[in-house]
Structures are given as C-alpha cells and as structure tokens.
Amino acid sequence: TEATRLEPGNDVSLSHLARAYLDKGVWDRAIEAADKAIALKPGNDQAHLWKADALRRGAAARTDRSARPALYAQAVENYRGYLNLTNFSTPAHEKLAYYFIGFGLGSRRHADRQVSYAYQRGLAYLGLCDCEQKLGNLLRAEEYCQRALQYDSKDAIAYFLLGSVYRDLFNRSPNRD
N or C: which end of the chain has fewer CB within 10 A? Predict the structure, then answer.
C-alpha cells in the first residue's frame, strides 16, 4: 500500500497489491486494486489474472447464491483476457527457421516468457475450468481442465475438478445405466 501511495500511477505496484489482497482473502480490495491497474494499463496481464482469481474465490464465498453466476462470468472474462495477453507462442515456421536454417532467419521472440508464465497459465485454465463448471458449461470446463493438466500433469486439484466435471456430465446424461 505504501508503494501505491508513493506512486499511485504505477500499474505494476497496483497489480502486486491486488495479489497481496488476494493472498489475504480480501476479494473486494483485490478486485479494486486490479481494476485500477487495468485502467492504467489494459495490457497488465497479472492484474487480469488476480482479478479473475478474486472474482472466482469471492463468488464461492458468497452466501447469496444468486450473485455467484455473474461473478463467475466476470472471472471467465478476466481469465480469458489474461490468456490472450500471455499467448507468446512463436509461429512454427519461425521456430524451424531458427533451429534448422540458422540464427539469422528466424526469431525466438517470447521464448523466455513462455516458461515463466507456464505456471500462471495453468492456474488460469484451472480457474476457467472451475468457473465453467459452476456455470454449467461442462464441456468447456472439461476442455479447460485438460489444458491445465497440459501445464502440470501432476496437479491434484486439476484432476479433482476434472473428475467433478465428469461426474456432472454423467449425472446429466439421459442414458445412465
């Protein structure tokens, strides 16, 4: 909070504040700090991720169940925003040119970022899986759980959520025998 007081126009410190509030379970303050960071710099990917997590966790904590779907839908929007902002994949033809033809033809732009964001991208897909399941979009939830597992094949939470999605799909199926 001191950093944001000294430099109120710094989107990075606001996104860090959003994460701090998220870690403390103060969902509304996390959303507020993330919103300020996004207003200053719409491309602040971290702010989108922390806002999405705060919306999702805040929705689950609400006693008023009627407010949950709108919060989950907002979380989905922010998770997708984060994923769009952190999609740093290099086109295949550039990778081939770089590795097989020589250093002068292709490029390795964003290769370093892909590794550093892999964990957080997995978190985003996990959050999307949870939100889509809560919204009743089970096939989308299944796809997002599978994508989360591509980032971390040993994530117990992802397997648990995927199992819950499969259970819900089975229970929704008319031909259960």
Answer: C
